[in-house]
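step=encode ok
step=design start
structure_in=
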C-alpha cells in the first residue's frame, strides 16, 4: 500500500510541476511576443489593444511602433506605403532606419479619412 501511495504522490508532483513550468513559459513567451510583434499579440489578446493607446508612444515612432499605432497587420503593408512616397513628409530615414513623426502621421491619417 505504501508503494502505491508513494507512486501517486510522485505522479501528482510531476504533473503539478509540469503545469507550473507551462504557465511560467506562457508568460515568458507572451511577454517576448508583445515586444517583438505587438499587433499580432493584440489580435490574439483583445485586452492588449485597450492598453495600447497613443499616450504610450513618444513623438517619434519606429516602423514597428507605427505598425502597432496604426494597427496595421505587418510592416510590409507600411513599406508598401513608404516606398511609393505615400507617407513622404511623415518620416526621415537615418542609416536605413525609418523614424516617423507621430504628429505628422496623425495629420496624414486625418487627411486620408476626409477623402
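sequence_out=
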Amino acid at each position: 500500500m505504501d508503494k502505491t501511495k508513494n507512486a501517486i504522490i510522485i505522479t501528482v508532483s510531476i504533473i503539478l510541476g509540469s503545469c507550473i513550468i507551462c504557465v511560467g513559459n506562457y508568460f515568458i513567451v507572451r511577454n517576448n511576443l508583445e515586444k517583438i510583434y505587438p499587433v499580432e499579440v493584440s489580435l490574439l489578446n483583445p485586452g492588449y489593444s485597450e492598453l495600447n493607446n497613443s499616450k504610450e508612444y513618444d513623438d517619434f515612432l519606429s516602423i514597428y511602433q507605427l505598425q502597432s499605432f496604426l494597427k496595421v497587420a505587418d510592416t510590409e503593408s507600411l513599406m508598401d506605403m513608404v516606398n511609393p512616397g505615400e507617407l513622404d513628409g511623415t518620416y526621415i530615414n537615418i542609416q536605413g532606419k525609418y523614424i516617423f513623426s507621430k504628429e505628422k502621421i496623425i495629420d496624414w491619417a486625418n487627411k486620408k479619412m476626409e477623402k
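step=design ok
step=annotate ok -> The longest strand covers residues 97-101.
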